[in-house]
Design a protein that fits this description.
This protein is α+β, with helices and mostly antiparallel strands. The chain is built from 7 helices and 4 strands.
């Protein structure tokens, strides 16, 4: 069994400084390189292999996830639609084709989002973002929506005239 605690004096051929080093480390260095350099000299001259990914472990992990998501877009969307609305991405595409890529309210040919009832979770259809937000801001309440229609038409709301 080697004595790992035994230290010997060794002169570095690069900087000529005499240092104490473990005997087993010196023997291994002499066997591999025929010379023993001190740690500061080795660190200065060491050539580091380029890393495949730059950044911290978290950044590399995030980068790998983004890469997988970009390469598997349909799977990502399928998971998202199932989690949020209980429908598959294929069902979304079918609804989109049935609606001829148009919003059910304003007929805009825009990016369509899934409209659903927040109480029951049931999907109602695909709407443009503006129409979907408007319904959400009116709290999905047909009574409030009817009041808004009456208001826009310039009729009386709650006993008050809205005409200027």
């Amino acid at each position: 069994m080697p004595n790992y605690n035994k230290k010997i004096e060794v002169s570095c051929p690069n900087c000529n400084v005499v240092r104490l080093a473990r005997s087993d480390v010196v023997k291994k260095a002499l066997k591999e390189r025929n010379e023993f350099w001190c740690l500061p000299c080795r660190n200065k001259t060491r050539v580091h292999a380029p890393r495949k990914y730059a950044g911290t472990k978290e950044e590399r992990s995030r980068q790998a996830v983004k890469s997988w998501q970009n390469n598997n877009r349909d799977k990502v969307l399928d998971q998202r639609y199932k989690r949020r609305y209980g429908i598959s991405y294929a069902e979304y595409k079918t609804m989109l084709a049935k609606q001829k890529n148009k919003c059910l309210i304003c007929n805009a040919e825009d990016v369509l989002v899934v409209d659903h009832n927040h109480k029951t979770g049931k999907v109602r259809g695909l709407l443009c973002n503006g129409c979907n937000c408007a319904i959400g801001l009116l709290r999905d309440d047909p009574t409030i929506l009817q009041s808004a229609i009456t208001y826009l038409e310039g009729e009386v709301v709650n006993g008050t005239s809205t005409t200027v």
